[in-house]
Design goal:
alpha+beta, elongated, 114 residues
């Protein structure tokens, strides 16, 4: 069942004509997942001093296992599918970070210019 899930799912994509944001969840190849949030526009330029801006959340295999238990799924594909349902929205990366904190699994997060 986990193999039926695509390698990448879109958690959020939106634009209001001023700012565009795109958040995806990808399999990392080592049993983990990577969430990538890319934003571009005036808000990104004002908040981060750059546009586009990229924030990346690495979820390692141990964290995927904890999320799989939480969502009652079997593997990284199941976790990605659950995240696609449960944490959609412009703050999906932040929601996932909070969930990892609640599960006592610190996250590997960094931001960089795109």
């Amino acid at each position: 069942m986990g193999n039926a899930v695509p390698d990448e799912v879109v958690l959020f994509e939106g634009s209001d004509g001023v700012e565009h944001m795109h958040v995806v969840c990808r399999r990392s190849g080592d049993g983990g997942l990577v969430l990538v949030q890319e934003s571009a526009g005036e808000v990104s330029r004002w908040c981060f001093g750059e546009s586009p801006h990229r924030a990346i959340l690495h979820i390692d295999a141990q964290q995927v296992h904890a999320l799989a238990r939480h969502f009652h799924v079997r593997d990284a594909g199941g976790v990605a599918a659950a995240l696609e349902i449960e944490v959609t929205g412009f703050d999906s990366l932040t929601q996932t970070r909070r969930l990892l904190t609640l599960l006592d699994k610190p996250e590997h997060f960094f931001e960089k210019t795109a």
